[in-house]
């Protein structure tokens, strides 16, 4: 989870092996969710395990409204962190896994067993990080404290973990990251290409002002599909966390052309192929704001509102692609002791496609988590 109260690192176990410091930790988390989709049915899977805005059915889908109750422990997470000083160099590594990013063919009939999936895996040498981590285009400090697996308003923020090489100097971060282009076909479906010839480039500046923590990030990327040439994608993101007494306000605002893969878990794509057979990038914008209120040392709540907007040329994509998403959530969390958090969260989300068809999701989620 995003906030310190929900972070496994705050409860991890440290020990030493030779000259290496090791930190082992994680958490056990169990979720129970009641979900109602206003238009059409949704198969068991990620769209019912966490908030996936692009999976909300819209009017015209067969079957009318549908409701489901689901329980799982797939979000359970494990990590191992090491630090070593070798000949004056600070060496480190980090490995993090869970059971929800790649659940495989697990079933709910008998065993409810799921695959372990890689989240992050990297090594560090002084100011260098090499491996798979969160994109430099994101700011994790600004993420709200929520019960949903994605841990923030999915439709309103950048969200990418991928292989990268990053250099940090003070508040500056620069990186080259794994490229991938997602193209919307003429029927509105997604074509994911792996034909890029140069990596994505990202830069971020982190700073403090007035007691708050802020960042400005950018990304520039090549969009490429064989037979359709290439285009340039670029985006900016401003994020921050502002204390208000014991409470705080957190926000992120992002936008650009050809950055669909980077925001809202790729609810909209990067580009389409125009009448001349060339790639044409789409504009997309996403934002959220969250207010976290501390009721007492053991009780707290977070309220969020978020949005996604995309500007498509429907002559290239059809009118079945997502035009906008809006959502809001409110939770109440209780930590009887520092290692335990239980809570309840309500979320309302609405999705509209370019044709004007729309649909909504109402979800009530209850969760219990033990960090170790």
Can you give me a brief rundown of this structure?
The protein is mainly β and 372 residues long. 2% of the residues lie in helices and 56% in strands.
Descriptive overview:
With 372 residues, the chain is mainly β. The strands form 2 sheets. The protein has a 16-stranded antiparallel β-barrel. A 4-stranded mixed beta sheet has the order 11-10-16-17, with no helix packed on it. It contains 2 helices and 22 strands. The protein has a single domain, classed as Porin, LamB type (Maltoporin, Chain A, Beta Barrel). This is Porin. It comes from Solimonas fluminis.
How would you state the average pLDDT, rounded? 94
Give Rg in angstroms: 21 Å
The CATH superfamily is Porin, LamB type
Strand order across the biggest sheet? 2-4-5-6-7-8-9-12-13-14-15-18-19-20-21-22
How many separate structural domains? Answer: 1
CATH topological fold name: Maltoporin, Chain A
CATH architecture descriptor: Beta Barrel
Query: What is the CATH C level class, in words?
Result: Mainly Beta
How far the N terminus sits from the C terminus, by CA atoms, comes to 14 Å
Counting DSSP H or I runs of 4 or more residues, the number of helices is 2
**How big a fraction of the residues is strand?**
over 45%
Q: Give, in order, the helices and strands.
A: EEHEEEEEEEEEEEEEEEEEHEEE
Number of strands: 22
Q: Using the alpha-carbon principal axes, give the shape.
A: globular
Q: What can be said about the biggest beta sheet?
A: 16 strands, antiparallel, barrel
Unreliable parts: 1-8
Q: Which structural class matches the secondary elements? A: mainly beta
Helix content: under 10%
InterPro entries: DcaP
Protein name: Porin
Organism: Solimonas fluminis
């Amino acid at each position: 989870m995003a906030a310190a109260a929900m972070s496994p690192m705050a409860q991890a176990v440290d020990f030493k092996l030779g000259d290496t410091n090791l930190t082992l930790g994680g958490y056990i988390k169990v979720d129970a969710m009641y979900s109602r989709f206003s238009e059409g049915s949704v198969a068991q899977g990620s769209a019912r395990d966490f908030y996936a805005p692009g999976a909300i059915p819209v009017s015209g889908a067969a079957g009318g409204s549908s409701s489901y109750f689901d329980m799982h422990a797939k979000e359970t997470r494990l990590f191992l962190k090491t630090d070593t000083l070798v000949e004056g160099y600070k060496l480190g590594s980090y490995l993090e896994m869970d059971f929800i990013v790649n659940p495989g063919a697990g079933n709910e009939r008998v065993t409810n067993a799921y695959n372990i999936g890689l989240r992050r895996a990297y090594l560090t040498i002084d100011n260098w990080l090499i491996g798979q981590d969160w994109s430099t285009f994101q700011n994790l400090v600004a993420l709200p404290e929520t019960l949903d697996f994605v841990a923030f308003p999915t439709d309103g923020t950048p969200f990418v973990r991928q292989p990268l090489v990053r250099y940090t100097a003070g508040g500056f971060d620069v990186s080259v990251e794994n490229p991938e282009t997602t193209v919307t076909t003429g029927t509105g479906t997604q074509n994911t290409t792996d034909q890029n010839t140069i990596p994505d480039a990202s830069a971020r500046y982190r700073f403090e002002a007035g007691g708050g923590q802020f960042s400005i990030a950018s990304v520039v990327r090549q969009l490429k599909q064989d037979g359709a040439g290439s285009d340039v994608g670029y985006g900016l993101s401003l994020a921050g966390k502002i204390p208000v007494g014991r409470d705080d306000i957190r926000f992120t605002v992002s936008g650009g052309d050809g950055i669909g893969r980077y925001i809202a878990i790729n609810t909209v794509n990067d580009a389409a192929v125009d009448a001349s057979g060339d790639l044409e990038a789409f504009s997309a914008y996403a934002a959220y704001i969250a207010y976290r209120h501390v009721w007492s040392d053991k009780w707290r709540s977070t309220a969020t509102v978020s949005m996604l907007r995309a500007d498509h040329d429907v002559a290239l994509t059809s009118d079945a692609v997502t035009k906008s998403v809006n959502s809001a959530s409110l939770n109440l969390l209780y930590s009887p002791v520092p290692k335990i958090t239980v809570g309840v969260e309500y979320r309302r989300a609405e999705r509209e496609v370019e044709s004007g068809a729309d649909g909504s999701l109402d979800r009530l989620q209850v969760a219990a988590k033990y960090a170790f």
